[in-house]
From TrEMBL:
TM helices/strands, residue ranges: 260-278, 283-300, 312-333, 354-375, 387-410, 456-475, 567-588, 595-616, 622-643, 677-695, 701-727
Membership in a protein family: In the C-terminal section; belongs to the SecD/SecF family. SecF subfamily.
The protein, known as: Multifunctional fusion protein
Keyword vocabulary terms for this entry: Cell membrane, Membrane, Protein transport, Translocation, Transmembrane, Transmembrane helix, Transport
Annotated compartments: Cell membrane
Organism expressing this protein natively: Anoxybacillus kestanbolensis
MF GO annotations: protein-transporting ATPase activity
InterPro entries: SecD, SecD/SecF_arch_bac, SecD/SecF_bac, SecD/SecF_CS, SecD_1st, SecD_SecF_C, SecD_SecF_C_bact, SecF_bac
Domain Protein translocase subunit SecDF P1: 65-121
Topological type in the membrane: Multi-pass membrane protein
Keyword S-adenosyl-L-methionine: no
Source domain of life: Bacteria
Assigned GO CC terms: plasma membrane
NCBIfam families reported for this sequence: 2A0604s01 (TIGR00916), PRK13024.1-1 (NF009581), secD (TIGR01129), transloc_SecF (TIGR00966)
Length: 748
């Protein structure tokens, strides 16, 4: 009897969810903060150094520096800056949405130590003599911009002007900002057209007052900036840039638009695939995946998280990965239907049998995500955060959401004896009366003998390893500045660029690039790399020049040799820790041999990606490490599903000989092959969409993922399970030999 109330409840629930998401999604999306790589801005890692010899950088000094930087950022009008203390002597500053990046960098790094000196560079007064917040931009009696300041003590200024007056004809009061002892001097600067000192005024009378005007060749903007700096206060330390990345607003806007478009295409392909291949459960998958996307955005909004470009990529990839849980469940239900079980029975057994597999598969990816978060930089942390949230959200929607919605349809009894609604051909359904515990699930891949050709697979992998090793030893990797240090500049123009044109423009700036690579559909983009780290003035000139030339502010990233080595070390440590964590988990949940086989397969995948990048000369950067760790987590998913099926078959059958063991592995691979292909296809849809339509900034990341997905599917089917079989067969033979020996020993 059909229970129509279940069908009505299903549609009401879908309408309710659709209405809730439709009315609130736009507001949630608007509330989410965009990272600097999506709205423009910059990130700088400063090394904090003492201004005087013998001084130490303490926690209090770092905190007072952060306070001073916050005051300066308030001057810039950036609404939500982020300043973090890292370690014992580093401060990281992130400013998203800042309009004038050159001005912002200058204001942040300028120490703003004001000194009044005589012509012999002796200090007469300094910033401590100024009234706090007493500086303002004004105009002098000739109408020129100036800076008015208030002094604390009129008598002290009287003494200073009296002393300078007595030094006639050298009666000049020189005002400096950030005077460098042993480097700067009045004598060296006085003859220059643009001297380093702010002002050099002749003192012809004694002044007994607190109101003083600093007059120089200022523009209104320069005078206002100086007043703001003096009001913000001097930095108690010297800041040295050791890592920086800046993104022009137009680069960020383009990256956002292209990646969202790629995401729409990738997700639409996943939805279409699920509808065609799984039919009724596919409809449920589309609903739960839509809720999954909504939940992720909602949680990110609640967390006050910052959405980065890799974060959007993780969200898009997450859809492909989240559907994995649906596919595992649906395939188990299809298996039971093929064995002649009723729809209700197949639904219950499928849900119960898939839960542990889904849990194991997701935890391994979480391990990789946690390691990425612990050792990654800000953009990689954004990717890791989104990845972890995606996995948790997929567990709620794909497991519990699917059970609820699919359960309503199944329990309605409307689809009883209609297996085609669940993607099962009625011809493949066995007679339940003839099914026993030893009956295998009918599969299209029953004729494939995976075990028979195991040696061939090992030979292929061995050959690939040898070729990859030769490539790495000869061609090596094309390391980006993240690992090799230096400067990278991304240029964008409305017209096509040529290498010679870019070289000529850089020559005007007296800059010699290491290499120039053109990209984009019409070569409208150029990636320029420099061996050295450009300083703040060089970056400022470069940004201004190309913004004026092409109308788009370029992206500039710098990495010092020290930070480059740290990033390389952290990358190695992160892969190592993730691998150890996965070994431990699989050992606990399965067994040691399976854990070792899984890790060998993972190393195979990681090496394949590295060799692929060596062959293609694609640049290796931080997102490459994120891709490797993502594949490490995701590839294990596939391996775990295979191992789970092997464990299931081992419990059903009595394995006494090596042939029995081979049969179990072969059957497990045959039965999971379809699922492996389907799950990798859904992720490939999203990765290819990112590759073809996404931002150039994550192009190499997408290439690494695609190479890893292909290698991961291969290793799960032809390396991990086959290795386990070899080791388990040896263990079985040893056990048989011991038993034979015991039986052969005469009784005493």
């Amino acid at each position: 009897m059909v229970k129509r109330s279940r069908i009505i409840a299903f549609f009401l629930l879908v309408v309710l969810l659709g209405g809730m998401m439709g009315t609130t999604a736009e507001k949630i999306v608007k509330n989410i903060k965009l990272g600097l790589d999506l709205q423009g801005g910059f990130e700088i890692l400063y090394e904090v150094k003492p201004t005087k010899e013998g001084e130490k950088i303490t926690k209090d000094v770092l905190l007072s520096t952060v306070s001073a930087l916050n005051k300066r950022i308030n001057v810039l009008g950036v609404s939500e800056p982020r300043i973090d203390v890292e370690g014992n002597d580093r401060i990281r500053v992130q400013l998203a949405g800042v309009k004038d990046q050159n001005k912002a960098r200058e204001i942040l790094s300028t120490e703003a130590k004001l000194t009044f000196r005589d012509v012999h560079d002796n200090v007469l007064m300094d910033g401590s003599d100024l009234v706090e917040g007493g500086a303002k931009q004004t105009f002098d009696d000739k109408g020129k911009p100036s800076v008015a300041i208030q002094l604390k003590d009129a008598n002290k200024f009287k003494e200073v002007t009296q002393k300078v007056l007595s030094m006639a004809p050298n009666n000049v009061l020189v005002i400096w900002l950030d005077f460098k002892e042993g480097v700067d001097s009045y004598a060296k600067e006085v003859g220059k057209e643009h001297p380093k000192f702010i002002s050099a005024a002749q003192v012809n009378e004694v002044f007994n007052q607190t109101d003083v005007s600093i007059v120089g060749n200022f523009t209104v903007e320069e005078a206002k900036q100086l007043a703001d700096l003096l009001n913000a206060g001097a930095l108690p330390v010297e800041l040295k840039e050791i890592y920086s990345t800046s993104v022009g607003a137009q680069f960020g806007e383009q990256a956002l638009q292209k990646t969202i478009f790629a995401g729409i295409i990738g997700i639409a392909l996943v939805f279409l695939f699920m509808l065609i291949f799984y039919r009724l459960p596919g409809i449920v998958a589309v609903v739960t995946l839509s809720v999954y996307i909504y939940l992720i955005l909602l949680v990110f909004d609640w967390m006050n998280g910052v959405l980065t470009l890799p974060g959007i990529a993780a969200l898009i990839l997450g859809v492909g990965m989240a559907v994995d849980a649906n596919i595992i469940t649906y395939e188990r239900i299809k298996d039971e239907l093929k064995l002649g079980k009723s729809l209700m029975s197949a639904y219950r057994i499928g849900n119960r049998g898939s839960f542990g597999t889904i849990l194991d598969a997701n935890i391994t990816t979480i391990i990789a995500g946690v390691v990425l978060f612990a050792y990654g930089t800000s953009s990689v942390k954004g990717f890791a955060t989104m990845l972890i949230i995606s996995i948790l959200a997929s567990f709620i929607t794909a497991v519990y959401g699917t059970r609820l919605l699919l359960g309503l349809l199944v329990k309605s009894r409307l689809f009883d004896k209609k297996p085609h609604y669940f993607g099962v051909n009625p011809k493949d359904v066995l007679d339940i009366a003839k099914v026993t515990d030893d009956t295998d699930v009918p599969t299209k891949f029953a004729r494939l003998d995976f075990v028979k050709r195991s040696k061939l697979f090992f030979i292929i992998s061995g050959a690939m390893f040898a070729i990859g090793l030769v490539l790495l030893l000869t061609a090596k990797l094309n390391l980006g500045i993240d690992f090799s240090s230096g400067t990278r500049v991304d240029l964008m123009s409305e017209k096509s660029l040529t290498t010679e044109e870019v070289k000529q423009e850089l020559k005007q700036l007296q800059l010699e690039p290491k290499d120039i690579v053109l990209s984009g559909n019409n070569n409208e983009m150029a990636i320029v790399r420099f061996l050295g780290v450009l300083d703040q003035k060089e970056i400022s000139k470069l940004k201004s020049h190309f913004k004026e030339k092409y109308g788009v502010e370029p992206n500039v990233s710098t990495v010092s040799p020290t930070v480059g080595k740290e990033l390389a070390r952290n990358a190695f440590i992160s892969v190592l820790i993730a691998s150890i964590g996965i070994i431990i988990y699989i050992t606990v949940r399965f067994e040691m041999y399976m854990a070792i086989a899984a890790i060998v397969a993972l190393l195979h995948d990681a090496f394949f990606i590295i060799a692929f990048f060596s062959l293609t000369r694609l640049e290796v950067d931080l997102t490459f490490i994120a891709a490797v760790l993502t594949i490490v987590g995701y590839s294990v998913n596939d391996t775990i599903v295979t191992f789970d099926r092997i464990r299931y078959l081992m419990k059903k059958r009595k394995v006494k000989t090596v042939d029995d063991l081979k049969d179990v592995v072969n059957k497990a691979l045959q039965q999971t092959f379809g699922r492996s292909v389907n799950t990798v296809l859904t992720v490939v849809f999203t990765v290819v969409a990112l590759l073809l339509f996404g931002s150039e900034a994550i192009r190499n990341f997408s290439f690494a993922l695609l190479a890893g997905l292909i290698s991961g599917t291969y290793s799960s089917l032809f390396i991990a399970a086959q290795l386990w079989l070899v080791w388990k067969a040896k263990q079985l033979k040893k056990g048989k030999q011991k038993r034979d020996q015991l039986e052969a020993e005469p009784e005493v």
